[in-house]
């Protein structure tokens, strides 16, 4: 177990030697406190030497990692023999400031930034810390988060590693920015928020514990106090009659790791050159003789604190060691995988052409796999990728957009009425003219062109996106090749898009060019008329029921059933919507009569008129007649010819045009001339709306099927099939393939960083394995 702390020290050195932050969270003790709280004095008491910078204002301006290593006699002998060889080789001896020969000194310091050099003079250590701080932060009180690493070898220390962080200050001095307090707090938080960090919160006894910045920051990252130890300094400077017993016992603010009280050297002791050893003896006497602290003297003082921290750190490392091993191995595999993706730099003797052809083949294969949904390495469970996105465009964007299209968009009743009238020319039509239907449906079919062309654009953009997003490792290495590949794929896509757009436009034009009224899905004229009559009959039934309910009479009352006859039960006049000759139904005695005019007679609603043509209808029942009813006029065909009835209706169509005379023909004439629809026009428009709706659905269904097929045939699959040959033709046969395979500077630097990191992680893994082997040997 005694190798645990040295193992972590080695890990710290491994990551610090090359100026890299530790990729794993190493167990360390972070010393936090406000300016002049006694942090430096506590650390010097651990070491037993004066070696940290002192002065007014902020002194510790960079984090200082102090690794204390206890030297053993046999180890010290071996280390000294190594020093002897070095001294003999150089032909000189190292001397301290007093000129005393310290060749055989048993205490020394080594800096990570000055390898293979020992400092036996601790005053020189102080000077080197100040010099190294100034090299990074300047000489006017600047700060930096970059740590200074040093090792202290001594038989008088315990194995311990602490990180002395800058003291909290509020007022900027020198070159410090106005937000110096915020910057220092952020720096401290970046160290103590690590889960494996033990926080040593230092607070002076002559200040209220409730104002402790160190405890406040420790609580923010360790609210339960599981990894925080409190240190109360300057207990000898408290006012007479007061003590910090309640603080030390955790009655004011409880910490699971507890508190330790220490007594520092005063400034007068430092000025009088009082040694650390003398200060330790004075500290022991203080606690043994103090009336309050004497019962806890064995749990107070710097020596006890150092041993407690060493044991605590060792236990903490033991708990963290398995996780450290896992994280280091995971980091190592991750970096090795990234380096493998970058590949090795192409040598002068390698076949550049073969390497280029291999990259082209791999890229084309990856595109095909992404399109077919076989790119397992990049397929995500969180979003659609590759060909699945194109499928989404076809079925969830384009098809749904067509489903939302209104067959009567921008088509008014006047437009339909005008189209019908224009299609008849100078004649008066007997039926709905087919040319009017063609004119209207072609106008509506043209509206399918915009969503179809938009679908082409969406798929084109998706192919571009996929070509750029392919995560091919070699492309990141060669910027020139990546750029040229993008140009070639873009040119190919643009060449294929134009004919694809033309094919899609032709599909819409094909639908316009021939209106197939015999399409099996088209409703046709006969079925449309039947549907219309049925809807009219249903409407008539609803009107009859509403009229009967309004008069308070029961519906469908049988005749001759004992009810007294009244006017409402008698046969209404022909043309009444509630009588036997109502909408869609012929008179009772006409239902069984065969047609005698040679063409069907359309029965329908007739205007309700009395003898004078207006006012309430006569209560006299109409006599049954065998004359057929004309659908348009709603009156009996007294001349027994449908032609006369139709001519009569055509004449009525001109009613309401009182402002038009022989000598006053308007320049622009509307079909309706501002009047409402008459019976005939209402029937015609309902009929043509049914036909338009049916044929619009036929075209919609066709284009939902054929437009995606055309895009796949002429754009997607053609691009896939021609991609490889296009890349080979454009790239492989270029005069200077060496330029295409020239790596970017970022790739070269990244490869160097990865190799460096892999080497470091391997050394770190080796250190962890040595500790594990040592544990197995002990067990």
From TrEMBL:
Signal peptide: none
Renumbered residue ranges of the record's region Disordered: 72-101, 536-647
Lineage top rank: taxon: Eukaryota
Top EC class for this record: hydrolase
EC number(s) from the headed UniProt entry: 3.6.5.5
Residues of the Dynamin-type G domain: 23-322
GO cellular component: cytoplasm; membrane; microtubule
Pfam families on file: Dynamin_M, Dynamin_N, GED
InterPro entries cross-referenced by the UniProt entry: Dynamin (IPR022812), Dynamin_GTPase (IPR001401), Dynamin_GTPase_CS (IPR019762), Dynamin_N (IPR045063), Dynamin_stalk (IPR000375), G_DYNAMIN_dom (IPR030381), GED (IPR003130), GED_dom (IPR020850)
Compositionally biased region (Polar residues): 606-642
Molecular-function GO terms, alphabetical: GTP binding; GTPase activity; microtubule binding
The entry's keywords: GTP-binding, Hydrolase, Nucleotide-binding
Gene3D superfamilies: Dynamin, middle domain, P-loop containing nucleotide triphosphate hydrolases
Keyword GTP-binding part of the UniProt annotation: yes
SUPFAM superfamilies found in the cross-reference section: P-loop containing nucleoside triphosphate hydrolases
Biased composition (Low complexity): 545-577, 590-601
Residue ranges of domain GED in the record: 685-776
Family: Belongs to the TRAFAC class dynamin-like GTPase superfamily. Dynamin/Fzo/YdjA family.
UniProt name for this protein: Dynamin GTPase
Lineage: Eukaryota, Rhodophyta, Bangiophyceae, Galdieriales, Galdieriaceae
